[in-house]
Amino acid sequence: MSVKQRRNVEELEPPSSELLYGLEDNPPWYLCVLLGTQHFFTMVSTTIPIPFVLASLVCLEPSDPARSYLVSTIIFVSGLITFLQSTIGVRLPIVQGGNFAYLIPTVALLSANFASCESQRAANLTAAQQQEEWQARMRAIQGNIAVSSVFQIILGFTGVIGVMLKWITPLTIIPTVSLVGLSLFDLAADRSSQHWSVSMSTTVLMVLLSQYMKDVSLSLPTGYRRGYGFIYSEVQVFKMFSIIVALLTSWLVCWVLTVTDTFPPGCPSRTDRSTLISNTPWFRIPYPGQWGMPTVTVAGVLGMMVAGLASIIESVGDYYATARICGTPAPPVHAINRGVGIEGVGVTVAGLWGSGSGTNSYSENLAAITVTRVGSRRVIQMSAMVMLVAGSVCKFGALCASIPEPIVASLYWIMFSLITSVGLSTLQFVDLNSSRNLFVLGFTLFFSLSVSKYVKANPESLKTGLPLLDQTLLVLLQTTIFLGCVLGCFLDNTIPGTKEERGLVSWRAQQGDSKSCPGYDLPYGMDAIRRRKWLRYLPFSPTFRGFHSAKYNVTVNTTTSTPVPVTTTTSTPVAETTT
């Protein structure tokens, strides 16, 4: 989540006294279901473009039921990971979903190892051969995602992420995140070109609803009281559901134009071109290895690792923003370590299940918390249950996958542009009057895009004599976020510059002070954890306060089960703990 977005959230966020339900509160079950469903639809509107892009990359036909399987799988996996993250991870009301950053190495991996979809269609393959072709692509994607997640798991559970963040500066983050959106502009243009009028009109509608009408409130029934009737409240519908409203409106218009034969036969925007819904079963539970045994390449793993690093940076920012919205102290180091580690476990799950994408936290759902003034963890856990149920109903996935592609292409314009601006918003921390910073930023962006474009157009230029090395370089040099991350990190940490000039002072100050808070403790077994002193050395343990915390003797009050830190005399500075 960008700093600009977080500041906007801070302006909107209600003080903790105005929250209807805080982090530890449990609203009534029916309210949990209602608000959890709202978070579900907010997540789905952002996640849908990912399986659409994957379906085209792996050469799936429009009427193939596997399209709905991809949609259902990513929703099901998001539910699993959201529940894990909110229960034993960072334990904040954060929704996990698909990550666009993984599309960049995916495109590079497929273009380097598989034939294009056009050549595959020209080969006149049988149905069985076509199925094997797209499943082979999916196995390559999921295998590399699953193996790359080990990197993220190690960073989180060993606490190394805290050390790495000292070298990951704003001028490393800006090109890494911005290149995710910039590298996908040709994909958005290609999909929109199928029917420009539909794509552009849907895009205009999204901008109108999300930007110009975001503060428009509608009086809707939000409850019922016996003797009084329905209770009406002012709800800012377009602020939370602008994308869904725009999609449904355009879809309805396309259906009308299809029924009246305004759209000619074969038009990409017709709603009757696909028999996907009728070909899809009602229920199907996604399972590990559903596309076959995953395959792995060195180049693919390295590319996915860079995507995972980009998602870690965004997720850590979301942890701090969510804590502020919920009126709780900033997450302590053990909660961040555990959150990053569990997110890595989630990427493993996403890879094994074959969702085709890794996962990270969704900042879009923070707006729903701000508007509803409900920051309860229980609501997000209920939302995870809704995702699991919806992911098992294949007809829902088929319904989403049957949206005409020109309509979905409008989502690409919005999502990819927002990803780019999220990266660029970090510029507010660095000194833009510095020629040093301007060089690092401009050269990193231009060089990364240029090298990626050249290697993609001239793959035969990489001939080292070692096939494995050739394949690795071919994938990595086509992955713009890898080039941007490595080059930006190297230049910013080697070219002389002050901390203020590089934006390090303000960048680290915005994270705030981390304090101990019971809300970040594990739901069970805390008494046993506090009694075992050796657990203080584990970076993901709730009793961990930093690698110098061994200088504290933690005792437990037998009546309150509260840890009491007792400082010993030592010349080594130690971290403070708050009980």
Give a structural overview:
It is a multi-pass membrane protein. Pfam families: Xan_ur_permease. This protein is mainly alpha-helical and 579 residues long. 59% of the residues lie in helices and 5% in strands. It has 25 helices and 6 strands. A two-stranded antiparallel ribbon has the order 1-4. The chain has a two-stranded antiparallel ribbon with strand order 2-3. α2 runs antiparallel to α16 (364-372). It is globular, with a radius of gyration of 24 Å. Mean pLDDT is 79; it is low at 1-17 and 549-579.
State the end-to-end CA separation. Answer: 30 Å
Shape: globular
Annotation, overall tally of beta strands:
6
β-strand percent reads: 5-15%
Radius of gyration: 24 Å
Largest sheet: 2 strands, antiparallel
Which strand order spans the largest sheet, edge to edge or round the barrel? Answer: 1-4
| Count of helical stretches | 25
Helical/strand content category: mainly alpha
Task: State the low-pLDDT regions, or none.
Answer: 1-17, 549-579
Averaged pLDDT, please? 79
Helicity level: 55-70%
